[in-house]
Amino acid sequence: MDVFLQSLISGILLGGVYALIGTGLTLIFGVMRVINFAHGDIQMVGMYLTYLLFVHAGIDPFVSVLITFPLMFLFGGLIQKVFINRVLDALPQNQILLTIGLGLIMSNTAMLIFTSDYKILTTSYSSGSVKLGGISISQPMTISFLITVAVTAALWWFLKKTDTGQAIRATAQDRDAAQLMGINVKRMSIIAFGLGSSLVATAGALIAPTYYIYPQVGAAFTLKAFVITVLGGMGSIVGAALGGIIIGISESMGAAYIGAGWKDVVVFALFLLVLLLKPSGLMGKSNA
Amino acid sequence: MKRTLVTMALALGLSGTAWSQALKIGVINSMSGPEAPIGENLTNGIKLAEEDLKKKGILLQIVWEDDTGKPQIAMSAMEKLATRDGVAGIVGPYTSACANAVSKLAERYKTPLLVPAAAKEEITRQGLKYVFRMNAPADVYAAVLVDAATGLGKPKTIAFMYENTDFGTSTTKTAKEYVAKKGIQVVADEPYPKGAQDYRSTLSVIKSKNPDLVFLVSYVADAILIMRQSKEVGLKPQAFLGGGAGYTTAQFATEKAVSNFVFSCTQWTDDVSWPGAKDFGKRYKAKFGKEPTYHAACAYESMMVMADCAQKAKGDKEQTQAALRAGKWNGIMGDVKFEDYNGFTNQNNHQMLVQQLFDGNYETVFPAKFATRKPTYPFPGWK
C-alpha cells in the first residue's frame, strides 16, 4: 500500500510540472497552429537562467520564477516577432524546420557557453521531505506543484476575464474573423508565444532544484510535451493539464509495478490507446 | 634553394639520429570527443611519467594518437603505430570498447599493448600474448565492495539498482554471480533508463523489501539524484555500495548531505600506502591544478612499466613482450605482475580499494592494510 501511495503522490507532483510544459505548447499551437519544436530548448534556456541567478546572485530557484517569467516572455515574444510571424502562412514543414533550427541554435549556444558538463543546483531543501505515515512527500516537488497550480489558475483567469485574454482566445478560434473584428492578430501571436515560453521556462525553473541541467536537456521534454498535448487534445489548456497529470502518474506507477525500464512503454501504450479511442485527444474538438 | 634543401636534409638527418636514441612508445587515448574529460587524466599521467623517466635517463619519444572515443579510429591508430612508426609498445586505449577492438590487432602486428584503465573483462580473456592490462577488470568492482560489506557486518539481502546500459548491466551481472556465491539473497533487481527525473517509486519498491545492502551503478548526475531521492523516501540499508563511475567523482563528494558514508570502489587513491602514491598525488596537483583520478595513476604506472621493458629490450617488440611477461614492479599502483589466472592472460591481479565518503572526503577503508580510516558501518541514517 505504501508503494502504491508513494507512486501516486510522486506521479501527481511530477505531473504538475509536465502539465505546465504541455500548457505552454498547447497555447502556442492553439493560437498559431504552429508546432513549436524548440519548446524543450526554451525550457533549457529557462533552466540555465535559473542556474545563473542561483549561482551568481544567490536567488532561490522558486523565487527566481518572478525574474525568469517576464524575461522569457520577452525572449519568446522576440522569437515570434522576428522569426515565427514570418512563416505563419508558410507550409507546415517549413514552420517545423524553423522551430527545429531555432532549438538547435539554442542548445548549441548553451554548449558553447556552459560546455556539456552537468550542472546541479544544491539547495537546502533539494532532498527535503515530509513524512506522512509510511510515505514521504518531497518538499521541493510540493512547492513546485503549488506554484504550477497558481500559475495555471492565473493563466485561466487571464484568458477568461481580461480583454487581451479574450482576444487571444478569439484569435485561436478563428484567426480571420478575429482580424475582421479589429484584433491585432500578429500582436496576439507575440503575446501567446511569449506566454508559452514563460510557462515552459517556469517549468524548467521549478525542476531545476531536483534535476540537472545540460544543453541537450530539452529534447526529452519536447517529446514529452507532445505526448501530453496530443493526449489532452491539441489546443486545449484543460486537456494539457489533465494530460500532464496522467503521464506523471502512469510513469510513476509503471516504474513501481512493471520496472523503471518499462515506464515509457506504459506511457506510450496509454497514449496509443487514447489516440485509437478518441483521436482528437481527451479534451480535443474534432476539428482542431 | 639548393642550400636550404641541403640544410633541411641535414637537419632531418641530425634529428633522425637524435630520435633514434630515444625509445619510441605509442599512446592511444581519447583526447577529444565525449570521453575526453576522463582521457585528459590519462594524458596527464603519461606526461608525468615521461618527466620521471627523463630524470632516470630514459629518453622517450611518445607518439600520441587520438581515438576520439571511437573503436574504428583506435584501430587505424593502432595500425599506424605498429606499421609506420615502428613503436616498441603501446599504452592505451582508454575506453573498453576501443581497447577491445584494438587488442586483436596488437596480436596480429606482434606489438605489445598495455591497457591502463579499461574494465571490460574480455580484453584479457582472449588468450592474446601481446595484450597486457594494468587495472583490475569489471568483476573485481563488485567483488571488492561485497567483500568489504561482508567483512564489516552480516548482510543477508541485497538490492540492485543500475542504469540499463552496457556498463550498468555487465557490472551488475558479475555482482549477482558473486553475491550468489556468498549466500546473499537478491531481493530487488531494478534496471532504470538513465536521465529519468523521478526514481522515487523504484526506490520505494526497494525500501519495501528492506535490503541490507543497496548496490548502485550510475553516472554522475543520476548518482546524485538517486541518493537525494533515497534520502527523501528514507531508504536506510546497512550500506550503500556505489559501483564506481558516478559515485567516485568530486562532484558527487561535494553533495555532502546525501553522499556521506557511501562506499565505492576504485583502482587507486592518493592516500594508499603504495610507494610513491602520495608523492604522485602531490606532484600531479601541483602540475595540473587538480586531484588525480585513478585513471591518471594507471596510465602513469603503465608508461613507467612499458618504458622499463622497452629499454631492456632496446626497442625490440618481441623482447619487450618477453620483458613484460617476466618482469615484476612495485610502484604507485602497488605490486604489478602480469599473470595468467581464472581465464585471464597477462592480467595484473590488481588489488582494488574500497573508499568511503566522510563529509565530502574519500578515505580508503578496505582492505584493512591500506585503510586510512575506520569505516562507518552500518549506515547511521540520514541527517
| Secondary-structure element series of chain B | HEHEHEHEEHEHEHEHEHHEHHHEEEEEE
Give the CATH superfamily of the largest domain in chain B: Response regulator
User: Architecture of the largest domain in chain B, according to CATH?
Assistant: 3-Layer(aba) Sandwich
- How helix-rich are the residues of chain A, as a percent range? over 70%
CA distance, first residue to last residue of chain B: 78 Å
Going across the major beta sheet of chain A, what is the strand order? 1-4
Shape of chain B: elongated
Q: Uncertain regions of chain A: pLDDT < 50 for 5+ in a row?
A: none
Q: Cα-atom Rg of chain B, whole angstroms? A: 22 Å
Please give the count of helices of chain B: 13
Helix-strand makeup class of chain B: alpha/beta
Count all strands of chain A and give the number: 4
Could you estimate the helical fraction of the residues of chain B in percent? 40-55%
Q: Using the coordinates shown, work out and report the CATH topology of the largest domain in chain B.
A: Rossmann fold
CATH class of the largest domain in chain B: Alpha Beta
Beta-strand content estimate of chain A: under 5%
Can you describe this structure in just a few lines?
By secondary structure, chain A is mainly alpha-helical. Chain A is built from eleven helices and four strands; from the N terminus they run H-H-H-H-E-E-E-H-H-H-H-E-H-H-H. Chain A starts with a helix and ends in an 11-residue tail after the last helix.
